[in-house]
Amino acid sequence: MAMTAGGRVLLTLVAATLVLHAEDKRKEEGREKKQEQARPAPKAEPRPEPRVERKPEARPEPRVERKIEARPEPRIERKIETRPEPHIDRKIETRPEPRIDRKIETRPEPHIDRKIETRPEPHIDRKIEARPEPRIDRRIETRPEHRNEGRPAEFRPGPAGRGPVHEVVRTREGGEIRRTPTGAIREVRTPGGAVIRHSPSGVRQVEVVRPGGRVIVANATGRVGYIQRPLEVRGHAYVQRTYIVNGVPHASMYRPWSYGGREYHVYMPHHHYRPAFYSWCYSPWARPVSYSWGWSSRPWYGYYGGYFAPYPVYRSPAFWLADFIIAASLESAYMAQNVTVSAPPVIYDNSTGMSPEVKDAIAEEVRRQMDQARADQDAGTASAPPPIFTARGPRIFVVAAGVMAYAGDRECSLVEGDVLQLSQTPSQGAEWAEVRVLSTRGASCPRGSYVSVRTTDLQEMQNTLQASMERGLAKLQTDQGRNGIPALPASAIGAENASYAQDLQPDADAQAELSRAVGEANSSERTLINAGGDAAPTGTTISLGMTTSQVEGALGRPKNTVDLGAKKIYVYPDLKITFLNGRVSDVQ
Q1: Nearest-angstrom CA–CA distance, 406 and 161
Q2: Interaxial angle between packed helices 317-336 and 121-130, expressed in degrees from 0 to 180 and rounded to the nearest 10
Q3: Which one, of 509, 541, 504, lies nearest residue 525 by Cα?
Q4: Which of 5, 99, 273, 287, by CA, is between 20 and 30 Å from 307?
Q5: What is the helix (H) or strand (E) element at residue 30, kind and residue range?
Q6: Rounded Cα distance, 300 and 307, in Å
Q7: What residues have CB less than 8 Å from 310, skipping those under 6 apart?
């Protein structure tokens, strides 16, 4: 069948319409698929998240890194440098100190005691040359507040250190008599200005003050003592003392220092030695030295031979000087006792004689003071306090004259040759100081007890030690190369006089003035005592070598008597007198 042209056109249009419809349907389905594909993408967010991550990775992260690397890190470093260090300092300040305290409280004292008790003399010699000073200082200065623990009450220094209160009796003549609670006379003041002090050991000391600052100090016989007067040298005020030694006058210079109404006099050396000589004295000798003193023929040495014995050999000048100083003190004690007859020696044993450890402590003190003298040669000390008030001052003292000490509410006497150890440095100008008795010739202040003494008395002990040490140094210069003493190097020989040495001139009439002043004081004392209702024998001096009948004639029959054969003891209310073979050998 033939198709007309119109039919063909219509068919073409229908076919085209179907094609277009099918195409539209495909497009619609494609759009729906695309919409379905597009809708789940926002819900699951698979694509936006990478976009967010890319943004911080690309931009924020570099910025953060730059901030961290450039700014925060330096800030952190600065904080580390400034803050931790104070923390470290605080730890250092707060923790080590308790450790030090624990060591001080638990270790040094036992070590000291063991060394003193067990080490032989040669070992102690070597240690004294090297380290004794710190041992002594730790024991003395680190625990003073605990020393009263375990001590008998009667040997504890009182708060003021003054001992018992003395009864004062004023006489019609204008004098004063001071007594202990038991009635014993301790001090008599005469109208003429004399002060007579009585020690429990029976030794009497006379002090007379004259116009113009002139002072006379002597023992009861007037044969031992000094005259003091002011002296001005090139605008500087000093004090000169003229001592009588074996009947010969010698002048010494002192610088005055006052505090709290008390006046101290500090010894000034006559000579200044070369630094090489002080170094030679400070150092040990190459080999031990055997030295002959020649004391065997002297009465004092036989009398005190049981208390003191020199070293058999000397390892350094310090030990040689220690024996020289101790001997000078005991010789002075012998003369002060007014021995007029041949007296038997005092009997000492290991518990009363001076131990090697105590002598070693004196030698170490001498060595320290020589080193200090070398350092102070060019130092100005015109207005400085006495060394006893300084941390570098003396620690060991040898009693040079009888003094009173106080333990709690009781008094005891220290005599020449006793050795004391300062417990702690007294405050500047303090009137009292606490000391430990290392060695003693008597029993009044027992060995090991702690007592209070006046700082003026300690300064006088130090003055005597300095003067004896200066005489000993001069003797070493003279004896060097002889009698076993090693020869000095050329750089150590010789000395220079102090600038004031030429102004020292001893008083020519010193001996006569001493005797005259003591005679007047003794006469005035007897008058006062008689006026005060006491018999004359109360002021009588008991001397070494007196017989039992002489003592009974002076003091009457004793309250108690101890008879041990050759040794006899008379016990009076305030005195204990020991006789050996019928003669006085000790007074306490």
Answers
A1: 6
A2: 110
A3: 541
A4: 287
A5: helix 5-38
A6: 11
A7: 293, 295, 323, 327
| Residue reference for tokens 């060019």 | 378
SS (H, E, C) 125-159: HHHHHHCHHHHHHHHHHCCHHHCCCCCCHHHCCCC
* pLDDT in the model for residue 170: 83
Enumerate residues 6+ apart whose C-beta is below 8 A from 14: none
CA distance 521 to 538: 15
| H or E stretch at 583 | strand 583-587
**pLDDT given at position 419:** 96
Residue 274 in this model has a pLDDT that exceeds 80: yes
CA angle 158, 164, 169 (to 5 degrees): 150
- CA 106, 112, 114, 118: dihedral to nearest 10 degrees? 170
The Cα-based distances of 214 to 195, 229, 231, 243 in angstroms read 14, 5, 11, 14
Residue 510 pLDDT > 60: yes
DSSP 540: P
Assess whether pLDDT exceeds 60 at residue 145: no
DSSP single-letter state for residue 218: E
Model confidence at 162, pLDDT cuts 50, 70, 90, reads low
- Distance, C-alpha 251 to centroid of its chain: 30
Cβ-Cβ contacts under 8 Å for 513 (sequence gap 6 or more): 216, 227, 507
User: Contact, 552 vs 537, CB < 8 A?
Assistant: no
- Identify the band that residue 286 occupies on the pLDDT scale cut at 50, 70 and 90: very high
Tokens read off for 440: 């003693």
Query: Is the Cβ–Cβ distance between 550 and 540 less than 8 Å?
Result: no
pLDDT (average), residues 510-538: 77
- Quote the mean pLDDT of the chain: 75
Please provide residue 97's backbone torsions phi and psi, each rounded to the nearest 5 degrees. Answer: -60, -45
Q: What is the C-alpha to C-alpha distance for residues 272 and 257, in angstroms, rounded to an integer?
A: 22
List the one residue out of 274, 244, 246, 196 whose CA is nearest residue 522.
196
Taking the alpha carbons at both ends of the chain, their separation in whole angstroms is 178
Q: Which range among 10-19, 74-83, 104-113 shows the weakest confidence by mean pLDDT?
A: 104-113
What is the rounded distance in angstroms from the CA atom of residue 459 to the CA atom of residue 454? 9
Q: How far is CA 295 from CA 247, 287, 300, 324, 578, in A?
A: 19, 24, 9, 11, 25
* Token reading at 288: 């031990």
Report the pLDDT value the prediction gives residue 477, as an integer from 0 to 100: 94
Q: Give the count of alpha carbons within 13 A of 583, CB side only.
A: 13
Contact between 279 and 489 under an 8 Å Cβ cutoff? The reply is no
Q: pLDDT by residue (tens digit) across 93-122?
A: 444 444 434 443 434 444 434 343 434 443
Identify the CA nearest to 301 among candidates 343, 250, 351, 352: 343
Half-sphere exposure of 16 (CA within 13 A, CB side): 6
The proportion of the chain whose per-residue pLDDT surpasses 90, expressed as a percent, equals 27
What gap in Å lies between CA 257 and CA 89, rounded to an integer?
A: 43
pTM over 0.90: no
